[in-house]
């Protein structure tokens, strides 16, 4: 996933306005106006649906072994009582595709042009938002794992075998319920410049907090340019741990 040019990375995931609307998405949207807003590396597209009932988001894409919208729906429903995440309206699947419809959460993605232009504010919001998520979600009650063995098993299902150097993680610093994909686009930022929620929680689960921090820090370079990693860690409220940052960034890139 690593990219050195933030603009290239950003544009690669914004689908063209003329993106075809699948029949299933059109049926789920009803009479609402549809706008494609995000495309992932697996070919899934998220559409914004605007209608009399407000704003909804419809995520639609191929079934795959890496992520599951059914799993994401379960995780968002679990997390919703503790932290601001999208409210699940419906979800489903057929033999080849799956879909997830959620209510809008206030705020704009941290890679919205507004926030790309203010990286100092945005990076702080991402770091503080991640700390807020980690502090809010109860580890003891979480039924989901995102530890290294779980991630290695998921990778193996997709034919990826971890290099020997990555099979043993550093000792756990602090167990938290991790977001699982804490890249910048998945933090929402309110008009006041503070975090307002998180999206794309399909991998949420218990793991060392550095598994999330490392990815969030690395993603600042993809989106805002070099020099922001330590600022994000500082906004989270701790000092950089070079060993854990290096390990979990390498693990992310390997899986």
* Low-confidence blocks of residues: 1-12
* Biggest sheet record: 5 strands, antiparallel
What proportion strand? 15-25%
How far is the N terminus from the C terminus? 10 Å
Instruction: Please give the CATH architecture of the largest domain.
Output: Alpha-Beta Complex
For the largest sheet, list the strands in their spatial order.
1-2-3-5-4
Distinct helical segment count: 9
The CATH superfamily of the largest domain is identified as Aminoglycoside phosphotransferase (APH), C-terminal lobe
Overall geometry comes to: globular
Mean pLDDT: 92
CATH topology group of the largest domain: Aminoglycoside 3'-phosphotransferase, Chain: A, domain 2
Structural class: alpha+beta
- What is the subunit organization of this protein? single chain
* Domain module count: 2
Radius of gyration: 18 Å
Percentage of residues in helical conformation: 25-40%
